[in-house]
Amino acid sequence: MRRDELGMLIDTANRYGDVVRFEFGPRLVHFPTYLVRRPEHIHHVLFEARDAYPKSFDYKLLARTLGQGLVTSEGALWMRQRRLIQPAFRHSQILAFADPMIAASLEVSERWNQLAADGAPVDVAAEMMHLALDIVGRTLFSSDLADEAEKVSQAVGLLVRQLVERMSSAVGFLTLLVPGLPTPANRRAEKALRTLDDVVARLIARRRTLPESERPHDLLSMLLAARDEETGETMDDRQVRDEVMTFLIAGHETTANALAWTWYLLSTHPLVARQLHDELRSVLAGREVVVEDLEKLIYTKAVLQEAMRLFPPVSMISREARQADEIGGYSIPARSTVLISPWVTHRNPEIWRAPEGFDPERFLPGAPEHPRLAYLPFGAGPRQCIGSGFAMQEALIALAVLAARFQPALAPGHRVEPQLGVTLRPRHGLPMTIHEAR
Ligand code: HEM
Predict the structure, then answer these.
(1) Ligand 1 mean position to 275 CA, how many Å?
(2) Which of 119, 188, 204, 438 yields a CA-CA distance of 20 to 30 A from 69?
(3) What would the pLDDT profile of 317-360 be if each residue is shown by its tens digit?
C-alpha cells in the first residue's frame, strides 16, 4: 500500500468486489474501513442513509484550517449555511464571474507566449495552481486583494502543502492531532493562518463600511449580504471568515488539479488534442473567448469531464458510520469509516468500457449513458460540491483560452505519478515546454 496506494485500491476492488474491508494502522486506534463502489451502495451512504453517515475524522482535521465552513460543518449549522450561500452559486451569478476568469487566463497566456519563445520548461501543475488561486481571489474579493495577493497566495500554498503532507504521513498526522506542539511545521502553519486571518478580517471590515449598493460584485459581498429567508439572520464575521477560508482552499486546489491532469492527458493523446484545437478554431475563429462561447464548447467540456473521470481531483469521499449498518449483505460496525472513491468507481470495468483509456467521446451528447453514481467527481447528495458550476466554467475558460494558442508537451523522460492526498496531484509536478498550437 505504501508503494502504490492508488494501484492497490483498484486491484483490491477488482479482485475482491464491491465492498472491501481494510485495516489501517494499529487496531486500538483505528476502526475498520470499508471501500464501496457500486452505484446503489453509494446511493445508500450519500442519500438514503445519509444522516447515519456524517463526515469522517479527516474533515475534523481539515476544520483546524477551514473552521466551521461549508466543507467541515455538520447538522443545523451546515444546513443554514448551505441555504444562505446557495444563491451565490446560481448559474446567472456564476456567468457574471466569466470576465475575471477570462482576464486571469489571458495573463497566463501572456506569460506562456514568452515561455514558448524561450523554449524553457515550466511546471504546468504550479501554473494551474497559481491561475486557480488568482481566479478565486478575484471572484471572492474583486480588486481589494490586489496589494496582498502574493502574501495570501504564499500562505494558502503553505497551508495546502502542509495539509497534503501531513494527511499522508503518520508523523504528520500526529502533529495535526496535537496542533499546539511547537514544532517548526506547526509554527509555520500558525503563522500562515494568522497572515490569512488578518487579511480576511481587514477585507471584511473594509467591506462592511461600504453601503450595500457600493460594494463590488463578488462572493465576499454575497456572503455579507446573505440573509436567511425565514429568520432574516445574517452571518457574523467569524462565519464569513470560515466560509472565505473554505472557498480559498476548496476552490482552487481542486480545479487546478483538474486542469493539470487535462494538460498531461492532452500531451499524451495527440488525436484528442487535435480535435480540441479544431473545435476551438471553429468556435473562436481567432478571437478571444467570450462568455457566449461557453455553451458551444461541447468537445472541450467532454475533454475536461473525461480527464476528471481518470484523475478525479477529489479521489476519496469518506464518511463515518454512526451506528451499525449493512451494505450489500456485509455488516458495517458502528464507527467504521466508509470510503467512496471516485478514483476506483470511475475505473470500474463492470461499468466503463476500456476504463484506463482517455476517450472524451464518452461524454459527448448521444454517447451511451452511464449510471448516475458511476461518475461523481463533485460528490453526490446534499453535501455535493456547491462550486461545481463555478469550477466547470473556470476550467472551460482556462482550457479554451490557453489551448486555442498553446500545446504544452511533457518534458522527455519525466515520470508522471498521481499522488493521493487531500486532492489527487502529480507527485513530481508537470514540467512541460510550451509550443504554439498547430
Ligand atoms: C474541479 C473542481 C472541484 C472538484 C473536483 C470538487 C469536488 C468536491 C467534492 C467531491 C465535494 C464533496 C465532498 C464530500 O462529500 O465529502 C466538494 C464539496 C465542496 N466544494 Fe468542491 N470541488 C471543486 C471545486 C470547487 C470550487 C471552485 C468551490 C468554491 C468556489 C468548491 C467548494 C466546495 C464546498 C464549499 C464544498 C462543501 C459543500 C457542502 O458540504 O455543502 N469546490 N467538492
Answers:
(1) 30
(2) 188
(3) 999 999 999 999 999 999 999 999 999 999 999 999 999 999 99
Mutate to test the pocket of ligand 1, among 134, 252, 320, 385 (most ligand atoms within 8 A of CB): 385
258 neighbors 307 (Cβ within 8 angstroms): yes
| Number of neighbouring beta carbons within 10 Å of residue 313 | 23
Q: Which CATH number fits domain 5-433: 1.10.630.10, 2.60.120.650, 2.60.120.10, 2.60.40.420?
A: 1.10.630.10
pTM: 0.94
Question: Considering Cα of 240, then 422, then 312, then 323, what sign does the dihedral take?
Answer: negative
Three-state DSSP state, 352: coil
d(CA 377, CA 367): 19
Residue nearest to atom 39 of ligand 1 (CA): 383
Q: State whether the beta carbon of 116 lies less than 6 angstroms from ligand 1.
A: no
> What is the predicted pLDDT for the residue at 144?
72
